[in-house]
Design goal:
By secondary structure, the protein is of the alpha/beta class. The chain has a single domain, classed as Alpha/Beta hydrolase fold, catalytic domain (Rossmann fold, 3-Layer(aba) Sandwich). The chain has 10 helices and 8 strands. It has an 8-stranded mixed β-sheet, with helices on both faces. β1 and β2 form a beta hairpin. α2 crosses α9.
């Protein structure tokens, strides 16, 4: 299906969803990451609440995932308009890897009412509005998190120990700790690739939607 100019895959859980997750780089997460399969294994084990997953695929990834108003329109207006006819919860969580992880953290900060929780795998934090170099740009979003009056309710972050992004992600999580933000942080002995991100799927799913969270 399509939402606006975006190609979207919609996953419906085996029972009525209690939450909804918007995933960037959705085709890769569906086909390579097998995120829906990871969810189903956790659900069958009774460890996770049922979630609807919206797998969104960008048209111009380098632009859309760098603080782009078009991504805000997609997440805040276009996706809810389509899902409203299905019933169930709105998408209150957002997830991505690399630039998609950057976009997830940005949306959760800018719109905490809409996206109170987010997962970012290897977020490309070396990025500035209008920038293009994920190896050399400054950590603009880190400064925004340090200064923000309000932070997201819950975050899950992951990074590989062999990534050039490791220092920036560690600095970001240090800011979260200083601010008292609720977050989980995980490191893996691997690089900036799907091996790392597949390793972390179940962990981040539980960080965001684990049944133990409903008991708190």
């Amino acid at each position: 299906m399509s939402i606006g100019r975006q190609r979207v895959l919609l996953y419906e859980p085996p029972e009525n969803p209690r939450a909804c997750l918007l995933v960037f780089d959705g085709i890769a997460y569906y086909r390579l990451g097998k995120l829906a399969h990871a969810f189903e294994e956790l659900w069958l084990a009774g460890r996770i609440a049922p979630i609807r997953i919206v797998f969104s695929e960008p048209r111009q990834r380098e632009r859309e995932y760098r603080f782009d108003p078009g991504l805000e329109r997609l997440a805040l207006d276009e996706v809810p308009a389509v899902l409203s006819g299905l019933g169930g919860p709105a998408c209150g969580a957002v997830w991505g890897a690399s630039l998609g992880g950057l976009a997830a953290l940005w949306l959760a900060l800018e719109h905490p009412d809409a996206f109170p929780v987010a997962a970012a795998q290897s977020p490309a934090l070396l990025a500035v509005p209008g920038g293009s170099d994920a190896h050399a740009d400054s950590e603009w979003l880190l400064g925004r998190y340090r200064e923000a009056a309000r932070l997201p309710e819950r975050l899950s972050l992951q990074v590989g120990l062999l990534e050039w992004l490791l220092p920036s992600v560690r600095r970001f999580t240090a800011v979260l700790a200083e601010r008292g933000a609720v977050h989980e942080y995980h490191e893996y002995p691997s690089g900036h690739n799907w091996h790392t991100w597949r390793l972390g799927l179940e962990t981040s799913l539980l960080d965001l939607f684990g049944v133990d969270l409903e008991e708190d």
